[in-house]
């Protein structure tokens, strides 16, 4: 690992000033991804600005009935929070489905959003990777891509975003709030993560030098009946090969509102708007759920060795929606 | 005015098992290496050194964490508890005793991490934290019974290459039961579902 300077920030303006004070600095939250990437030589910052102690560690109700989650709230505290479990259960389930008890205690909400892909070529500095070294190539297109993207990828990068939490946040229209030296800003999560295109190294639209201060969950009564389901190659403590966050409001057997986001299928959490459109006003039955899943996955463009993910994701969407509809009918 | 560039080293005071140690660390030093190489506390084990095996689990302010991804310099100000700090004098912690009594190990390398993880996991459960296998996560539902499935899920960050999991689950259940007996005010910590 390269030598680096370490500074601790105690408030948001102080953190921004420290980051801005020289080149090549990174904010350090829980460190569960950044420290790991530094060990691997993928990240080589000259300075770390420790923001874990910033007073951004609260989950608070907003005036309009939503929640504001501070950036340094740990994943554990987010998942255990009574209002999250009551009003956005799929978010708590998504966080609990990620990593291990130890890592969830360390990892922060801000860091979770900014974690990097676990594509093996990205984390292996001896291999080319357009995300790590722009223009160097993407061996995954022809190589190991069993768990790579089926939606929204480009020939430049087929890696998937690893977060579970961000999938549920995407389904619930979460907004990222940040601070810069020039003032605060907000970005809906669906605009926060940018399409791959030919710039896979650029993952978010967060302005340079900005500090994520929190995530705002707008009020969403539909989210009270929501679920996150994750499929992986072992029962626990593994990244998803497919996941779904869904919420369903059914009345008289007809879908009034649906929220749907997919994980492990694209470079970013995938809001399934085509499926949502197909569901709205449809009968809440297996046929309609399958049609909605097909509507979303019509755009799927799998690689030679990950076509299984199209069927897996389709079945997952149908299963989760069916479960929610059965719950609504009880 | 821009702050002066800081060097690659800092003097830090680490609070480990109630004792304060002041040492100069290279910022690259993980808490795991500081504990083992600088403070001679070798109970905390290095397995994968990349946050995947749990052998280096310690408690930070009572919460379990992997010491291999925790920079020592960033651990200043936190109460660090290692496996060496669990016993009460000569009296082993109930979790340590349970692992001994029920053979919750084979080679023993992952054991300090398993025990530290179990001690904090039992507190997480008692505090009402749900897990990924908890059926009803609504706060009104209260803590789920600490079944074998719940224990396996909550302990999944601790790998055992010997595969002593069956005995580990029993030992953790025993430790949780001992804790529940000694803290009667705690909400349900039954280790098994009641017979039908």
Features:
heterodimer; A: 330 residues; alpha+beta; Uridine Diphospho-n-acetylenolpyruvylglucosamine Reductase, domain 2; Enolase-like, domain 1; 5-stranded antiparallel β-sheet; 4-stranded antiparallel β-sheet; 12 helices; B: 196 residues; Ubiquitin-like (UB roll); DNA polymerase, domain 1; 2 domains; 5-stranded mixed β-sheet; globular; disordered C terminus; oxidoreductase activity (chain A)
Mean pLDDT of chain A: 97
Ends distance of chain A: 56 Å
Strand order of the largest sheet of chain A: 4-5-8-6-7
Helix content of chain A: 25-40%
Provide the CATH top-level class of the domain at 225-329 in chain A: Alpha Beta
What would you report as the Rg of chain B, rounded to the nearest angstrom? 18 Å
- Strand proportion of chain A, as a percent range, falls in 15-25%
The low-confidence runs of chain B, each spanning 5 or more residues with pLDDT under 50, are 185-196
* Oligomeric state of the chains present here: heterodimer
The CATH superfamily name of the domain at 225-329 in chain A is CO dehydrogenase flavoprotein, C-terminal domain
Number of domains of chain B: 2
The count of β-strands of chain B is 5
User: Structural class, judged by helices and strands of chain A?
Assistant: alpha+beta
Q: What is the string of helix and strand elements of chain B?
A: EEHEEEHHHH
Assess the beta-strand content of chain B as a share of residues: 5-15%
CATH superfamily of the largest domain in chain B: [2Fe-2S]-binding domain
Q: Please provide the count of β strands of chain A.
A: 12
Order of helices and strands of chain A: EHEHEEEHHHHHHEEHEEEEEHHH
Protein name (chain A): Molybdopterin dehydrogenase
GO molecular function, one term (chain A): oxidoreductase activity
Domain FAD-binding PCMH-type (chain A): 1-222
Pfam family, one (chain A): CO_deh_flav_C
Question: Which helices and strands, and how do they pair?
Answer:
The complex is a heterodimer of chains A (330) and B (196).
Chain A (H helix, E strand, L loop, with lengths): L4 E4 L3 H9 L4 E4 L5 H6 L7 E4 L8 E3 L5 E4 L4 H6 L1 H6 L1 H8 L4 H6 L2 H6 L50 H7 L3 E6 L2 E6 H4 L18 E7 L8 E6 L10 E10 L2 E10 L6 E2 L1 H7 L6 H12 L10 H22 L1
Helix pairs in contact in A: 5-8, 10-11, 11-12
Chain B lengths: L8 E8 L2 E8 L4 H8 L18 E4 L2 E4 L12 E3 L12 H8 L9 H16 L21 H7 L10 H18 L14
